[in-house]
Amino acid sequence: MDLTAWTGLLVTWTLSMISPGPDFLAVLRSGAIFGRRDARWVALGVSSGVTCWLVLTLAGLDAMLRVHPGIYAVMRYLGAGFLVVYGVSVLWSMHRDQGESATPGTGAWGPAPRAGASRSVWSAYRLGLLTNLSNPKALVFFGALFVTVFPAGASAWTKLLAAGVLVAITVCWFTLCATAAGSSSVVTGYRRARRWIDTVLGVVFVLLGLALVWL
């Protein structure tokens, strides 16, 4: 790959990472409720999901799904179901008794009635992983990106190196988001406007899930 190809790949990838989406919202809300440590584990889960999609792309799964669209449809429905259920769980948590004590290790959904709660590392990691894996369109995007950027006959080592660089960018970006999400100003703002924030986030996740099916 020449410098132009690398530049195009890195710029396209970086722009796709920093665009707000389910991954970003999951990290942001986790940091506001559970703190930086939890948000960083969510970020690691997101990065693991991206790694899975990249590996599957390099293995040629995107081409297989084009031949067998039924499998892709099932993946979309499962992903959409996860996003809708997560969105509903956020909305439901908003209506809980505000005095209810947070329960550590609340599961993959992670909603808690108030900031300052805690949950297990696995719950945080699983949330990030499942949120990212819920969108199989990532596989289509990665496949198209690689086909467009890589020259014909590019070696496997070149593709693996590129995938490693893309994962590194992903980890850096979402770790930065997690650090910012756990800042005192974000936590304070969340506490003050939790009802509105959770309403917006819950509705957004539900709409993203529905859009995954219909668009």
Describe the structure.
The structure is a single chain. The protein is mainly alpha-helical and 215 residues long. It has one domain. It has helices at residues 3-18, 22-34, 36-58, 61-67, 69-94, 121-133, 137-149, 156-181, 184-192, 194-214. Helix 2 (22-34) packs antiparallel against helix 3, helix 3 (36-58) packs across helix 6 (121-133) and helix 3 (36-58) crosses helix 7. The radius of gyration is 18 Å and the shape is globular.
Question: How many independent structural domains?
Answer: 1
The biggest sheet amounts to: none
Low-confidence stretches: 97-113
Strand content is under 5%
Kindly report how far apart the N and C termini lie: 34 Å
Strand count: 0
Query: What is the averaged pLDDT score?
Result: 83
Report Rg.
Answer: 18 Å
What is the percent of helical residues? over 70%
Please write the string of helix (H) and strand (E) elements.
HHHHHHHHHH
| Class inferred from helices and paired strands | mainly alpha
**Number of helices, counting only DSSP H or I runs of 4 residues or more:** 10
Shape type: globular
Describe the structure using short key phrases.
single chain, 215 residues, mainly alpha, 78% helix, globular, transmembrane
Short description:
The protein is mainly alpha-helical and 215 residues long.
Task: Summarize the topology.
Elements: H1 3-18, H2 22-34, H3 36-58, H4 61-67, H5 69-94, H6 121-133, H7 137-149, H8 156-181, H9 184-192, H10 194-214
Helix pairs in contact: 1-8, 2-3, 2-6, 2-8, 3-6, 3-7, 3-8, 4-5, 5-10
